Every structure is written in C-alpha cells, then in structure tokens.
C-alpha cells in the first residue's frame, strides 16, 4: 500500500532540516487535483449515495426497535412474567443485530471502507504516480501537499505543480463542473458522509 499524501508531506517536513537548500522542490494541492478529476467526483457521489442508503437501513432497524419498546411498555402490565422476559429478550436481540449491522456497514474495515478503497484508491494511485513521474522528470528532491492541513504556512504559486499533475493525467482545471455540477458539489460538501475532512481547494 502506498503512503497517504499527508504521511508523505509529514515525513518530508521532518526531513527538511537534513536537505540541502539548493535542492529543487515543489508542492501540490491534492484536494484541488481530485476536485478536477471527473472519475473522483463520480466516485464520491456514488460513495455518498451508498452511505446514505446504508444509513437509512440502519435507522429503520432502530426505529423498529423503538416501536417494539413502546408497544412493550404499553402492554407490559398485562403480561405474565414469562412473556415479559421473552419480549425483553426478543427486543434486546434485535438491538444487538442493529448494532452489529451498523458496525458492519460503518465500522473500521466495514462495507463503506471497502467500497471507498475500491472506488478511490485507483484514482489516488494515478495521482500519486503522476506526482512521482513529475518529480523524476523535473528532478524535484521533494513535493509537498499543501491541502487540508496547516503543514505549510506559505507557498509561492510558482512552485505549485498541481496543474501539471492534472495535465499529465489528461484533465484540465475547471472542466469538471457545469453550473448544475457546481450546485450539486456545494450540496455534497455540506453532507459529505464519506470524507468529513474534505475542504474547499485553496
């Protein structure tokens, strides 16, 4: 598995004091790059849709349990002890099942994590490989990622090779959004379930 962009950036920042000042360097904004790749936008939309469907299924289970609890409390005074115990066990079993389903869908290594890896990793690998190729061709000692965190306080725009990465991947900045797409993108940012750390590209 390739290291994440953030891990690469952190390692490079830690190594900065050891690097000669004459070495060439550059930076990229991976959020900006991914936002301009149609495959990534489609994958994000698909992932959000699946997360929404899975969440509805889990919520329906808990709503059913809530109804069972309310019905039980309304009828409990009429039931003999053995039936009370049986009903309580049935409700508890359904609650366990709902929690197990929630973990299977949304827990670490769950269905949503696997779907995210299936959809996103090939795209992220393409970006990583393009960055690596640019670094080799341009003889950069290191390339930092300036997106999503305060790892860089200032970067001169002339060292940002994000557009060069997009060009190498065959994409053009801004060509991924129509007016409708931009509106939908704004909505998806507000309710992005699968990637809560996503921020507006700088």
Structure explained in plain terms:
With 202 residues, the protein is mainly alpha-helical. It has two domains: 5-46 and 120-190, Protein Binding, DinI Protein, Chain A; 51-106. It is 64% helix and 4% strand. It contains seven helices and two strands, in the order αβααααβαα. It has helices at 5-15, 30-35, 38-75, 81-106, 111-138, 162-169, 179-190, and strands spanning 25-28, 142-145. It has a two-stranded parallel sheet with strand order 1-2. α3 (38-75) runs antiparallel to α5. The longest helix is centred in the N-terminal third of the chain and has 38 residues, at 38-75. The radius of gyration is 24 Å and the shape is rod-shaped. It starts with a helix and ends in a 12-residue tail after the last helix. The relative contact order is 0.21. The model is unreliable at 178-202 (pLDDT under 50).
The residue-averaged pLDDT reads 78
Portion in beta strands: under 5%
Largest sheet: 2 strands, parallel
Provide the CATH architecture of the largest domain.
2-Layer Sandwich
Question: Helix fraction?
Answer: 55-70%
Strand order of the largest sheet: 1-2
What count of structural domains? 2
Distance from N terminus to C terminus (CA atoms, Å) equals: 28 Å
**Number of strand segments:** 2
Query: Any idea what the radius of gyration is?
Result: 24 Å
Shape: rod-shaped
For this structure, what is the CATH class of the largest domain?
Alpha Beta
Uncertain runs are: 178-202
Tally of alpha and pi helices: 7
Query: What structural class results from the helix and strand content?
Result: mainly alpha
CATH topology of the largest domain: Protein Binding, DinI Protein, Chain A
Order of helices and strands: HEHHHHEHH
